[in-house]
Amino acid sequence: MAVVEEEMREEPSRLQVTRRVTLVGAFVNACLALAQVVGGVFTHSQALIADGVHTLSDLASDFIVLLAAHEAHRDADEEHPYGHGRIETLATGLLGIGLIIVGAGIGWDAANRLLNPERLLNPTPLALFFAALAVLSKEGLYQYTRRVARKIRSTMLEANAWHHRSDAISSLLVIAGIGLSLMGFEGFDAWAAIGVALFIIYLGGRLLWQSGQELIDASLDDEVLKRTEEVIQSVDGVVSMHLLRTRKSGGNAFADVHIQVPSRISVSEGHQIAEAVRKAIVGKIDEITDVTIHTDPEDDAVAKPNDHLPLRDEVVGQLRRKWLALPLYDDIANINLHYLDGRIDVDVYLPLKWAENPGGVLDEMKRLGESVVHVDRVRVFFEQE
Asked: Are the C-beta atoms of 130 and 40 separated by less than 8 Å?
């Protein structure tokens, strides 16, 4: 209960951080886009106008992020038992698609101007000021947003950070294109706009690929898997592990794993070891937020399968029918079954008075028990009355 309450306290904090970072970015984007577009018009720079349109796409993405962040932090419900984290993934994909569309539009317009030289623009020196302002503003936003995104493990915020970085780099291309145009190389402003467009398309494709990988449950990277394996193996009681699988969902990552524990320990001890593994992974691997653990009494990758074996009621019923005529029948205190390597081992608990094996009754009990189909051996233990 304490863990759940702590997570509920953390979730609003994560949402508030996302909102704050996104609102800062939206404000800067709005001011900068206005300055770039107006500046591009007055300084006759097509590249600067294209860069302003790119900044406007960031402003639109900021609103998508705000909406998605609000929806993604809704509590799990009956229809969405794993929560709503994939909304962040979907939003990241939409940002990627938006970048591709914007980049294609900018590139198309610039190419048309190059094919029609009379439409080319000749920028003025003041255009360099607006381009430099964009570089400084967008790089600052990138550093700020990405730092927070890594801290709260938000792929959506990181996608938005790359939106800011794309503007910063594209503005460098704008500076180069404007500078060359001012030096007398006609058309370089339009070429810079095409460079911006190609870069935008590349970033959009990258984000779309990342979100697609997440939607098809791609695994976390090898370094995280290696650290997770080391944590599991370090827990006392774990004999071995296999079938470690991971997947991402928005800012969260989930794992499931099979662990092998000693074959004859109690169910409760096996559960305790599994719970210790879960706590160790969540506590030491920042990328993973929840773990499902399957506990095995043997290495099921090597051992014979047990799925054909009958369950307890059937096995114990057969054993008791075999032992019904034995004088110790009414003193049988408990029967434990161990399903191992395709067979069943039986542990029988009797009062201490039968330890002397009068008349070979224990030998007969073992012989009859081991004649039951699927039973491999019968072991007898004695308890103080």
From this structure: yes
* CATH number for 48: 1.20.1510.10
CA nearest to 46, candidates 238, 157, 265, 196 = 196
- Digit-by-digit pLDDT tens for the chain (385 residues) are 444 444 444 454 666 787 788 788 888 888 888 888 888 888 878 778 777 877 776 676 667 666 666 665 566 666 665 655 667 777 778 878 888 887 888 788 778 777 776 555 567 788 888 888 888 888 898 898 888 888 877 766 777 787 777 778 777 877 887 888 888 777 777 787 788 788 778 878 887 887 777 776 667 778 888 999 999 999 999 999 988 988 876 666 788 999 999 998 989 999 999 999 999 998 888 778 789 999 999 988 788 999 999 999 999 999 999 999 999 999 998 999 999 999 999 999 999 989 989 889 999 999 999 999 999 999 999 988 6
| Structure token pair of residue 110 | 């610039």
Element (DSSP H or E) covering residue 285: none
DSSP 8-state assignment for residue 367 = H
Q: How far is CA 79 from CA 11, 70, 75, 83, 214, in A?
A: 20, 18, 11, 9, 20
Query: Are 288 and 252 part of one and the same domain?
Result: yes
Q: 273 with 369, same domain?
A: no
First to last CA, the chain: 40
E strands, the chain, in order? 240-249, 252-260, 290-296, 334-340, 343-351, 375-383
Domain span at 50: 2-215
Shared domain check, 93 and 62: yes
CATH number, domain at 366? 3.30.70.1350
| Nearest-angstrom CA–CA distance, 22 and 60 | 11
Count the domains in the chain.
3
